[in-house]
Write a structure and sequence with these properties.
CATH architecture of chain A: 3-Layer(aba) Sandwich
Shape of chain A: globular
Helix content of chain A: 25-40%
Shape of chain B: globular
CATH superfamily of chain A: Flavodoxin domain
Number of strands of chain B: 5
Distance between the termini of chain A: 8 Å
Largest interface: A-B, 50 and 58 residues
CATH topology of chain A: Rossmann fold
Largest sheet of chain B: 5 strands, parallel
Number of domains of chain B: 2
Helix content of chain B: 40-55%
Number of strands of chain A: 9
Radius of gyration of chain A: 15 Å
Oligomer: heterodimer
Strand content of chain A: 25-35%
CATH class of chain A: Alpha Beta
Number of helices of chain B: 8
Strand content of chain B: 15-25%
Number of domains of chain A: 1
Order of helices and strands of chain A: EHEHHEEEHEEEHEH
Structural class of chain B: alpha/beta
Amino acid sequence: MVLIVNTTLDTGITHVLQDLISDKGIEADIVEAGGMKISHCIGCNYCWLKTPGVCSIKDDYEEILKKIIKADQLWVISDTALGFIDHKGKNIFDRILPIATMYLKFMGDQMRHVPRYGKRTDIGLIVTGDADMDYLKKWTVRCALNFESESLGAYGADEIKEAAACMC
Amino acid sequence: MHVLIINGSPRVKKFSNTDKILAKFTAGLSSKGNTFEQYEVSDRKQWDTIREAWDRNDNILIAIPLYVENIPGLLLEFLATVKPKDGTAKIACILQGGFAEGAQLRCGEEYLGILSRHLGCEYKGTLVKGDNFSIRFFEGDMQDKVTGPYQRMGEVYGEEGSFYGEECRKFTGPEVFPAHIRVLLGIIFKTVGRIMFNKIAKSWGCDKPLNYKPYGT
């Protein structure tokens, strides 16, 4: 299942994506999160040590988290700030901690947290403003390590067809 | 010099590892005749005050816990609201994280150079170090053992105004651990490490196994 989380207020972009992928017969679960109540991560560590797998913040993110752990691909559509994704986009990633456990292991030559679930969700990024795209591509690769998955890349809004081509 | 220090942790000051690191760092900074003012991004009530301090300071230090390979969403939200400088101000950063290897923090460090440019500041480098997750669980001498070395780094920054020196570079420690250490740590993670985390969880009132799956498989 392809999960698309749009943190911008522009629903036009998801309509375009929907058209592009429905031509290929792909069903996507699209979450319009731009107007949702989604807090930043407060770093309390409760999801690791007090209520394992459950975030202490009760807001609209829980429904997204439940979808992520079942998705083959997670695409986040984000506006940009300071050369990067903006805080609304970043919060979607920062709040992902409940999918990992407190336990540690080595993956290759670096430490990682032991995943809580069996699904491996690949990560893609679509940004609607100016950003350092070379850096964003690198960041998405690094970010995917937290999902023990692969990066699907980072795309500008003008590359939406290329992004849609990676959805399957 | 006088330094504006912004604690970029979203965790409240009382439990902030970054704050405990800054307590040592600023002791070193002050010992070299420098002054500072420090604010916490975790407290939104301080945001207007920090913006005002941002406008009148040219030596800025941002202390940051790594959140998913970059700066925390809350810090990003705050920094998007400050007025970019005209190129004469200087930014240096302290980047800290839980994983022990320096390599874990490099992606975040790379962004801090990009961020400085977007904020119209000259970038004076980042002090990079991991292995800080345990700070909140330690007290007294045990905590000092982890945070204490930051005092010397405060002295160095106080004298040089940057983190570009060799001593700061070495402060990071190993980029990755040698293979035999990884094997040893891997065994510790599966045994003593799990027991320790289970014990902490119990003391926090946790009544589930730490690998519990609340939303099914």
